[in-house]
Each structure stands twice: as C-alpha cells, then as structure tokens.
Amino acid sequence: MIRGEEERAQRSEEEPDEAPPPLEALAGADPTRSDLVEVDDPILTARVHRPADLLRTLLGLTAIGVLIAVATFAIGTTEGIERDVDKGSAQAPSLLIEFAGFASAVAVLIVPMAFAIERLIRRDGLRIADGVLAAVLAHGVSLSFSLWVARMAPEPVQEALIRDAPAGGGLTDPVHGYLAPVIAYATAVGMTHRPGWRLVMWAVVTLDALAVLVAGYTTPFSIVVTVLLGWTIAYATLYAVGSPNVRATGHQLLAGLRHVGFRPITALRAEEPAGLDERERGGGNTPTRRYLVTLESGPPLDVTVVDRAQQARGFFYRAWRRLALRGITQRRSLPSLRQALEQEALLAYAAIAAGANAPKLIATSELGPDAVMLVYEHIPGRDLDSLPDDEITDALMETAWRQVTALQSRRIAHRRLDGRSLLVDRDGTVYLTSLRGGEIAAGDLLLRMDVAQLLTTFGLRVGAERAVAAAVTVLGPDAVADSLPLLQPIALSRATRSTLRQLARERSQRERDAVLDATRTYREARGSLPEHADRKTLRAAKQAEKQVMEEALENAREPDLLALIRQQVLLIRPEAPIEPARIERIRPRTLVSLIAAVFAGYFLISQLINPEFQRVWDGANWGWVIVAAVFSALSYFAAAVSLLGFVPEKVNYLRTVVAQVAGSFVKLVAPAAIGGAALNARFLQRQGLRPGHAVASVGASQLFGLGSHVLLLLTFGYLTGTEHTPNLPASRTVIAGLLTLAVVALIVTAVPSLRKMIVERVRTLFAGVVPRMLDVVQRPKKLVAGIGGMLLMTMAFVMCLDASLRAFGWELSYPTIAVVFLAGNALGSAAPTPGGMGAIEVTLSAGLVAFGVPQEVAVGSVLLFRLMTFWLPVLPGWLSFTHLTRKEAI
Predict the structure, then answer these.
(1) Where, by residue number, does the polypeptide cross the bilayer (predicted)?
(2) CB atoms within 10 A of CB 275
C-alpha cells in the first residue's frame, strides 16, 4: 500500500539523514522485500493561487475602467440610455414591478443560503468561508466606491451612476450595497461551476437588477458596475487566499492504473530540478508531474500526470509569446485536459512513426474531472544536463541529430530541445522526451528554430566548433546554414536564454577585472606624479591611462556563444545568411511605451477638457502665449547643452535634443526626478558610453544642477528680500537659509538611520560620479557648457513663467518669479507623482499669491505655464520617444 502524508512526515523527522532511494534503485528492487520504501506525493499545499483568478481580476478592473471612461466622455450615450429605460419603465404595470422586486429581494438572499447549507452538508466549509470573506470585502469596496463617486468623481460619472430616487427619496446609490456582496459570494463559493445553481442564481440576480432598474432606483451603468465589482472582488479574494487544491494524489494515480489493467505496487514521485517548471513554461509546454511506478510483474512505468492547476501555469508567458512572436503557432486559448492529453498522445505516436527514439506511450486515462495521466514505458538513463562533459562525445551528438532529422522528415517540431529533453540510456542511445509542446505539420520557421536550439544546447556543453561539426555531419552544411537567421535569443527556450545571460554577466565581470588589473599595473609602473606637475603633464598621464584601459578592454573582450557558432558555420558556408530573422512582432519596451502613451493621452485629454484650462484659452493674451511657447521650446536645447557638458565623449547634439523632448513624455508616466535621469542614462549608453560612465555623467549633471539650483534660490531670495522688505537687512535671508540647513544637518547626524542612509548615498556618489566630475573639470569648455546650459534652461523656464503671467496682464520682477519657479520646481521634483503633478501647480500658485498676484490670475498663469512646459510637449515627446526607440537610440 502507499503510506500517507503524516507517516512520511514523521519518518522524515525520525530519520533526517536517510535519503530516498534513486529511481533506478527502486525500479530494480524486489517488490516482495519488506524494507521497500513506498512513496506518495510530497505534502501538498492546501491552497493554490491560480493565474486564471488573477487574469479575471485584471479583466474586471479593466472593464470597470472602460465603463468609467465611457461614462466620462460619452455623456450623450448615458443620458440616452437612461431616457430609453425610463420610457420603457413607464409602460410596465406597477403591481408587477412591486411583486418582482419583493420576490427577487427575498430570493437573492435565500438562494445563497441554500447553497451554503448544501455545501456544509457535504463538509465543504472552506468554500463558504471564502464566499463570506469575498462578500465582506465587496461590501467595503462598494461603500468606498460609492463615497468616491458622491464626493470626488467627475460630474459625468455621477450623472451616469446616480439619479433622483422616486417619490423624493433623495439620490440613489452608485453601487448596490447588497447586490455586489451577493455576486461576490456566489462567485467565490463556486456556484458558477454548478450548472443548476448557476442558472438559478443568475436568474435571481437578473430579476432583482431589472426590478430596481424599472422602479427607478438605479441606472443601467450602476447595475453593470455593481456586477463587475462583485465579480472582480470575488476573484481577487480567491487569488489572494488561494483556491482549494484539487491535484490528483498518488492514491488516485494507482486507482487509475488499476482501472486500465495494470497492477502497481509502488509509485515514487520523480522530483524535478528547481526551476524546471519555469523552463517548461518558457517552451510553451504544459508543466507535468512524473512518477516511476513499479508493477507486480514486468518492467516499471513512467506515468505523467497533468491537472488543471498545472495546466494554468505559465498562461501569461504563453500569451506574451503569442503576442510578441510572429509566425509561431500558439494555442489561442487554454486547452482542456482532454485536448492536452490528445495533443501529447498524438505527438508520441507521430514521433515513433517517424522513426525517432521516443518513449512508447502505452495507455492514457482520466483521473477524475481535474486530471489526466499518460503511461509510458520506462527508459533507464540520464538526461543531457546530468551527463559530465567528457561523456558527451561526437557520436552521442550525431545520434541526437539523427533523431531530430527523423522528426523533421515528417514535419514535426519539438519546440524545446534543451538538456532536459534529451535522455541517454546506458548504451549511449539518445531518446527525445518532453514532446508535449511540439507541433504537427510544422512550418519551416519552427523546424529551423529546433536546429538553432539544439546547436546552442550542445554549444553550451562542448563548444561551438564540436557542436557545429556534429550538426553538419548529419544535417549537411546547407540545413545548418539555413538556421543562422534563427540563432538569436528570442528564438531559444527560456532556460537557454537564462544561461546565455548568466554567461554574458560572467564575461562582463572578467572584462571589468581585466581593466582594473591593467590600470593598477600601469599606475604601479608609472609611479606617482610630481606634486607640482603642470596641466599638460597631468593631461598626458590621463590620456595614457585611458589608452591602457581601452587596450585592456579590447584584449579582454570575448565573443558570445551565438557569435562563435555563426563563425564556425561561416567557415563551412561563407555565403550563409547571417541577418537575424524578424520574428519578434512586439518588444517589451514597445508594449510599455504603448501603455504609457495610453495613460499620457488620458491625462492630456482630461486636462485639456478641464474647465480651468478652457478659461486659460479664453482669457489669455495670445501674443504672450506664443512667447511662453518659444521659451518652453528653448529649454530643451539648453537641457541638451547642459547634459553634453558633462559627457567628455562626443555625442550628436541634435539627437540629444530629441532625447530631451522624449523626456517630456517619460515625465508624464514616471516621477520627475527618476524618469528623465533614467532616459538620459539609457540614451548615453546607446551612444557608445559604457554603463558606468553614462550613469556617472547623468549623476554629475544632476549634482551640479542641485548645487546651481540651491545657489540660484539663495541668490534670488536675497534679491527678492531686498525688494519686498527694504528695511530688513538683506543678509537675514541668507542667514535664515543657512540656519535651516544647519538644523537639517543636525537632525540627520543625530538620527542613526538617516546618518547611515546619507553616508551610503555619499559613498556611492563619490565612487562613481565624483571621478567623472573631475574628468569634466579638466576640460573648461565642457564645464562652461554644462553650467551655462543649466543656467540657460533655468532662465528659459523663468521667462516662460513670466510670459504666462504677462498673458493675464500682470507683472512681477524677475528675481521674484525666479524664486517662485525654483521653489515650486524643487517641491515638484520631490513629489512622487508623474511630472510633479499637483505639487508644482499648488506651490507655484501659492508663491504667486504670496507676492500679491490675485488668485484668479495666479491660477491661470500657472495652468498656462504647465500647459506649455508639461502638457503640450507630451505629443512631440511621444513621437520623439517612438523615433528613438525605433532607431534603438534608447
């Protein structure tokens, strides 16, 4: 018999040092021995977090967002729907409406209670607890959403979700406080999976919704939002707390084997190496569990079990692969268990019919409604990843290539020819396993991807030269050369890509170590420079050291494996195509930019249709508006000059200007202090700077910018103080600022956590940014350009704010406007909102009002300033961002 989980847990505690026997030892053991260890599954978790629940939650949130957007912008549509409903309601008999409302209100409570009683009788109380938790959460979310609609939602949303109640009863609720919890409860307890209960429940919910709608106690949009909220909260709850684990156990497995005619006595779970599930998901395969089963008579069996929870794993990755890759056959939806079983069985039979070595499929069966099993003959051996390098001979690789040739002769693609899919028995015969993710009647693209994958798999173990030679011996040079366009990371399996990235990191580390060693050796050989060395000597020493570093880097460079494989193939077929094939339909960065563009467009449109912005257009002087736009555009040219001033290397100026314009788009979807710096660092790396130098240049630019910002604020504050308080000594402004800084410094040094954080930040700064600054200081022209660009950019913003103020017929002195802008910009950069939204507007408006500007003029001027410097540049920023992305400049 199979011992239970409690017995296994107790045995593991009593005998912690005794390891379970290997598969081969168990397969060859005498089943009559009393000391034979019989193993069930490892202890299963009581609950699992299903990706399908997360997907449904995201879909529900998206639907709610779309509905609110429709209610915001399609005002005429919402009003027309409400008029049609009112017109139809007026024709319905009032007695029928009252009866339907009473009956549905009673039934909507009785039906869930009846289902709860039925589940409790069947001892399924956990599902009831899940339903109650979902109902409570749905009630709380409904109250919060209703409060948001009533207090803070835009007026069109309120009109779509709220209406006057009949008989002067005030206003209706935006969300039904009892219907959303009922829907959440019914969904969480699984009533939707029971056809009879599902029909009754949704009939009752529909009747109740129609009753309150016809009676005038709600709106159509409110009904839809209520249903979506209940549905979304239910699946969010199930994903958060997990669903009951329904995986098939070892007992069910043995019962299924007996059902198809086998007489098993032991079943040992074959533990997969850590991370294998991720690699299988990367290849598009369905993750499985494998067992080694010993029979009363005859050879052992390999049994593969697939259940619904495993089948859902990797769904998001497979969906992304389908979206990102072109020409790749991907299933359009999650297949059923029976479809998965039929797919794997078909591939197993087709592979053997093609003449390839593959485990023979003996039987298939269902293990209840939530799992299926496939029974294979057991082949003793080790996979390629388990073999030492000296056992991977040329003959073994040629045998593997012959199996692939057999598959390709019948147009069968394996789709994951990595080290876990090649099984080598004791005689050196290679078997192809993990066929479940393959394709029947595959196209040329998939077949060439298999060749590229196996080339890389062998290349990682024996090197490019031997891997290519073995492939050419079996396939011929033409077939190997045709796979070169597919020899790119995106066409390889997830596990292979991970290995290649790890090798790339190791190569980079070796290059850095080589440069550091060469620099250290050069400095020791050169000795220390004289204390009073002139500038020419220092510059020559710096150039010589830089040349040593470049030569060391060039000598330490190592080609990656894919490049080595291409070189070996080109030695055999010099005319082979090497241009990578375009199989990537969409890149992650493109998807991110599209999502960011959607958010940017939403914010831009919502701001431009805002009544306050409409007042700006109506009351502003258009001459000064144009002047403000000119100064806003000038700031991008000044920003480019400032950035290049801290980059000793040569970088194209106009392309840098385009990158600064692109930063106006990035600032809308990221905090102002983060988005622009990240974009500039990425841009400089794409222009040929090493990552460390690019980050150091941007850091040096920001450090000088911070210093100049503080200096300008103190200077203009001093001048402003002399203007507005002539009787007050002007030095008091500076003294007040210095005292404030001193108090802040004392607080930082007194608090250990703050002191530690500042010290770590400063140490990191001096490790990278300060050496870059010293390099810039040795070039006066660059330093003047960097500082001058910062001052010019600041003055451009100040003049833009001044023009915005003059557009509404008001003037202030330039020092005053500079103080207002510098203070507002500092607070806006510190705010964790995209582009400092909210913080900058409030600070600038308050600053202008503090210096005597009427509130209406201050608000209008600030809105015009933000329109010119933040909102209107979004569209050209998006175009610039897209252009640089397409040119691979960022």
Answers:
(1) 54-75, 95-116, 199-217, 223-242, 591-610, 622-647, 694-714, 734-754, 783-805, 857-881
(2) 11
Half-sphere exposure of 846 (CA within 13 A, CB side): 10
Is the model more confident about 360 or about 249?
360
Given a contact cutoff of 8 angstroms between Cβ atoms, the answer to whether 844 and 862 are in contact is yes
| pLDDT average, residue stretch 535-541 | 73
| Mean pLDDT over the full length of the chain | 75
Going by C-alpha positions, the residue among 490, 497, 322, 348 that lies closest to residue 433 is 348
Structure tokens at 513: 């170590």
Q: Per residue in 84-121, pLDDT tens?
A: 555 555 555 555 556 555 566 666 677 777 777 777 77
pLDDT at 59 over 70: yes
What pLDDT score does 90 carry? 52
Tens of pLDDT, residue by residue over 752-808, are 766 666 666 555 544 555 565 656 666 677 778 888 888 898 899 999 998 988 888
Q: Helix H segments across 91-189?
A: 94-121, 125-151, 155-161, 179-188
DSSP notation for 230-297: HHHHHHHHHHHH-EEP----HHHHHHHHHHTT--EEEEEEEPPPTTHHHHHHHTTPPP-EEEEEEESS
The predicted structure's pLDDT at residue 402: 95
- Of the candidates 464, 473, 575, 559, which has an alpha carbon nearest to the alpha carbon of residue 510? 559
- Region for residue 833 given its phi and psi (left: phi exceeds 0; alpha: psi -120 to 50; beta: otherwise): beta
The token pair at 784 is 């003047």
Mean pLDDT confidence for 361-379: 87
H-assigned helices in 557-652: 561-572, 588-608, 611-619, 622-644
**Whether the Cβ atoms of residue 37 and residue 21 lie closer than 8 Å to each other:** yes
Residue 383, SS3 per DSSP:
strand
- Quote the CA–CA distance of 231 and 228 in Å, as a whole number: 5
What is the pTM (predicted TM-score) of this model? 0.59
The rounded radius of gyration (Å) of the Cα atoms in the chain is: 35
Say which residue the tokens 């006057």 belong to.
164
Q: Where are the beta strands (DSSP E) in 344-478?
A: 361-366, 371-377, 382-383, 422-424, 430-432
The DSSP secondary-structure symbol of 376 reads E
pLDDT digit string (tens) for 559-593? 889 999 999 999 998 888 877 777 776 666 666 65
Average pLDDT over residues 359-365: 92
663 touches 675 (CB < 8 A): yes
Contact 790, 705 (CB under 8 A): yes
Rounded to whole angstroms, how far apart are CA atoms 215 and 618? 44
- Measured CA to CA, the distance from residue 451 to residue 586 in angstroms comes to 24
